[in-house]
Amino acid sequence: MADDLKKIAEERQKWQQGVEQVEPGRFQTLSGVPVDVLYTPAEAAGLDYLRDLGLPGQYPFTRGVRNNMYRGRQWTMREFSGFGTAKDTNGRYKFLLAHGEVGLSVAFDFPTLYGRDSDDTLAQGEVGKCGVAIASLADMETLFDGIPLADVSTSMTINGPAAVVWAFYLAAAEKQGVPSEKLRGTIQNDILKEYIAQKSWLFPPEPSMRVITDIMAYAAKHVPKWNTISISGYHIREAGSTAAQELAFTLKDGLTYVEAGIKAGLDVDVFAPRLSYFFNSHLDFFEEIAKFRAARRIWAREMKETFAAKKPESWLLRFHTQTAGCSLTAQQPENNIVRTAFQALAAVMGGTQSLHTNSMDETWALPTEKAVLIALRTQQLIAEETGVTNTVDPLGGSYFVEALTNEMEKQAYDYFRKIDALGGMVKAIEHGFPQREIADAAYRYQKQVEQGRRTVVGVNKHALEGEKLEIPLLRIDPTVEQEQHQRLASLRGKRDSSKVQECLAALKAACAGKDNVMYPILEAVRAYATLGEICGTMKEVFGSYEEPPMF
Amino acid sequence: MAKKLRVLVAKPGLDGHDRGAKVVARALRDAGFEVIYTGLHQTPEMIAEAALQEDVDVVGLSVLSGAHLTLFPETMRLLKEKGAGDILVFGGGIIPKEDMEELSKQGCGRLFGPGTPTTDIVDYLREKFPDRV
Fold first, then answer.
1. How many domains are there within chain A?
2. A276 CA to chain B: closest CA distance, Å?
3. Where is the B12-binding domain (chain B) (predicted)?
4. pLDDT-derived band at B1, boundaries 50, 70, 90
5. Does the beta carbon of B116 lie under 8 angstroms from any beta carbon of chain A?
6. Is A353 helix (H, G, I), strand (E, B) or coil?
7. For residues A193 and A550, what is the distance between their CA atoms, to the nearest angstrom?
8. Is A90 domain-assigned?
9. How far apart are the CA of B119 and the nearest CA of chain A, in angstroms?
C-alpha cells in the first residue's frame, strides 16, 4: 500500500511538470482554502478507511448518520416562514403542508426574538415584519389553529426567550389535547451564537446557560422527542465567516453546551441525543460537502473520546441546513433560484436531515407564495428527479472531497486550540474573539468582490444595464401592528390578573433560586402572561446583556 | 487643512444583522473618514442624541428588518426637532424600491441595497461633502 502511494506520488510529480504553473492562491475555495489542480490517493494519504470514514450509520459517521440514508427516509423539507399576525402565518403553513412540506419552521418577528411584547416601545415598526408576532399563548393557539401538533414536527428559531416560546407551544398542544411526550420539533435555543453572530440575546451568558440546562432537564423528563438545542452555524456564516470558522465556532458552542449539561449534573447520554445542528450551505459546492462530513466526524470523536458518551445516539451529529441567504443577489433575482439549487444539492450530498431552500426574492422582502413554492419544488426536484439519493454519501472516496474534509477538520481543531487558550468559548466571546474573526472575514470578502477577485454574477460581472425589478414582492399590511396592540389589550383585559401576578412572583423566586424555571414559566403561560411580562420578570433577576460596539 | 467628515453608523431598532453596518463602517474609516459606530439596538432617540454629541455631519442607518418606513423618518424628525436637520441621513438594507422612493421624498439621502460596492458609498459622501476629506 505504502509503496503504491509512493509510486503514485512520484508519477503525479512528473505529471505536474507538464501542467501550466499558476501563482499560489490563484485557485481557492470561497473561504480561501488553496485548491490543487488534481487530487490523487497521494493527497488523501494517511486516510484510514475504517477509522476515519467507516460505514454509514456507524462511528465516526463521516459518511452519514443512518445506514441507508435517503433510501430509508427523505430529509424533512422545512421552509422557514412567518410574517404578519399569527393568522396570516397559519394560512402560509397550511399552504406549505398542502404542497408536500412535512415539517414547519417558525420565523418570529424581532420583538418576539427579543422577548418583547408587540406594544413595547422598541417594537415600533417591527411587528410582524421579519417574522410572525407571538406575544402570548393566545397567539400560539392561533398560529397552529387547525394543524394537529401530534402529526407535524415544528422547528422554532427562538433563542433568548426560547424557554417561554417553547412553553407557549407546549401549552398550545395541551389545549389541542396532545400530550407533551408526543411532540416533535426543535427550538434553536443556541444562545452562544447569539453573542457571536445573530445578536438576539436577553440575559448575560451565565444565566442564559442555566436556563438552557433547565430546558434540557425538562425535555428529558417530559418532552423526550424534542430537540432542545439546534446548535447553529447558519448565522455565523451569514455574518461573514468562512466555512472553517462556521464549523469551528459552531462545534465549539456545541461542546460547551455538553460541558454545561454535565456540570449541571445531567447524564450526557440522556441529553446529548437531543442536540442537533444547523448549518449554512454556501456557494462553494465541494467545500460545503467537506464541511458537513468533517462536522460529523469531529462531533462523534469528541462525544465518544472526550465526553465518554456511551450511546451511539449521543455520537451522531444530525443537522438542518439552510441555503445561504447572504449569497443571494438583489440584481437579476431569478438567478437566485439556480444558486439555491446548487446549495441545496450540496446539503443533500453532505447528508442533511432537513433543509430550507431560500426564495429568490428574499434580498428584497419576505417571500411571496409563488417564490416559496419554487424553493420547495427545488428540493422536490433533487429528491425525486436527480437520482442523487439512490446511494449513500456518493462523493465519499473522492480524493478531493476526502482531502478537503481533512483540511476542514484540521482548521476546526486549530480554532479549538485558540479558543481553549482564551479560556473556553464563553471567555472567547467576552473577548470578542469569534466576533472579530468573522468581521475580518466579512470585510476581506467584500474587498475581494470589489476588486473583482471574486465573481458575483449579475453584480460585478454579467450585470444588466438599467435593470428593472420584475418580480412581485410581499408587503406586510401596516395595520398588523395596530391589530396586535388590540389583541394584547383585549387579552390583558380578559385574563385573571391576580393569577398572572402570582405566577410571575413564583417565576421570579425560581430564577433567584435553583429550581427549574420551566415549571413556573409554564404556569405563567397557562395564565396568559405575555412574553414581555415573563421575560421582563426574568431580566429583573438575571440582568440584561449589552455588547460593546466594535467594527 | 480641510476638516475630516464625521459619520455616525447606526443600527436602529431590534435588528441584529450587523454585517453590513460593520463592513461599511470599516470601509468609510479606510477611506479616511472619522467613523463612530453606535452598536446594536438603538432607538431613533438614542441615535439623534449620539449624532449631536458626536457632532457628526452624516448619519448612516442600516435596517434589514423591514422597519425602515418607521425608523428612517423618526430619526430624521428627531434630528430636526433637536435643531440638527442639516445632518444628512442616508442608509442601506433590505428596502424595496418604492420604499426607497418614499423615503427620498421625505428628505432621506441615498439608500443602498444589497450588492452595492462600498466605494459607491464613499463616492456618494465625497460628492455630498466636497470640502471635506
1. 1
2. 24
3. 4-132
4. low
5. no
6. coil
7. 17
8. yes
9. 8
Helix (H) or strand (E) holding A154: strand A153-156
Q: Is residue A29 part of a domain?
A: no
CATH number of the domain enclosing A302: 3.20.20.240
In chain B, the residue whose alpha carbon lies closest to the alpha carbon of A468 is B97
Residues 401-440 of A with CB under 8 A from B: 439
Are A125 and B67 an interchain contact pair (Cβ–Cβ within 8 Å)? yes
Helix ranges (H only) for A385-496 are 399-421, 425-430, 433-450, 479-494
- Tell me how close the Cα of A237 comes to any Cα of chain B, in angstroms: 10
Structure confidence by residue, pLDDT tens digits, A36-62? 999 999 888 789 999 999 999 999 999
Q: With an 8 Å Cβ cutoff, is B26 touching chain A?
A: yes
The amino acid at A58: Q
Query: CB neighbours (10 Å) of residue A8?
Result: 15
| Contact predicate A284/A29, CB 8 Å | yes
**A380 pLDDT exceeds 90?**
yes
Residues of B in contact with A459 (CB under 8 A): 115
> pLDDT tens digits, residue range A231-257?
999 999 999 999 999 999 999 999 999
Q: Who's near A157: CB < 8 A, 6+ residues apart?
A: A80, A105, A106, A107, A108, A188
A473 in B contact zone (CB under 8 Å):
yes
Query: pLDDT tens-digit profile of A69-118?
Result: 999 999 999 988 999 999 999 999 999 999 988 889 999 999 999 999 99
Q: Tell the CATH topology of B6-125.
A: Rossmann fold (3.40.50)
What is the extent of the structural domain holding A349? 49-387+398-450
Q: Residues A396-419: what's their mean pLDDT?
A: 97
Which residues of chain B make contact with A478, given a CB cutoff of 8 A? Answer: 69
Check if A297 contacts B (Cβ < 8 Å).
no
Q: Which of B16, B17, B38 is nearest residue A549 as measured by Cβ atoms?
A: B38
DSSP conformational letter for A187: E
Q: Is A419 within 8 Å of A426 (Cβ atoms)?
A: no
Strands A76-77 and A354-356: parallel
Count of CB contacts below 8 A, A vs B? Answer: 112
| pLDDT at res. A25 | 85
Backbone angles phi, psi at B61, to 5 degrees: -105, 135
Tell whether the model's pLDDT for residue A476 goes beyond 90. Answer: no
What is the interface pTM, i.e. ipTM, of the complex? 0.91
Interface membership of A113 toward B (CB under 8 Å): yes
Residue A512 has pLDDT above 80, yes or no: yes
Please give, rounded to a whole number of angstroms, the shortest distance from the CA of A348 to a CA of chain B: 28
Residue B46, pLDDT above cutoff 80: yes
CA of A250 vs chain B CAs: smallest distance (Å)? 18
pLDDT for res A189: 96
- pLDDT of A1 higher than 70: no
pTM (two decimals): 0.94
> Which residue of A lies nearest to B71 if distances are taken between CA atoms?
A125
B21 and A CB contact within 8 Å:
yes
Contact list in A for residue B38 (CB cut-off 8 A) is: 549
User: Do the Cβ atoms of A239 and B19 come within 8 Å?
Assistant: yes
A477 lies in some domain: no
A471 touches chain B (CB under 8 A): no
Q: Residue B126: pLDDT band by 50, 70, 90 thresholds?
A: very high
For residue A490, pLDDT beyond 90: yes
In a domain, A82, yes or no: yes
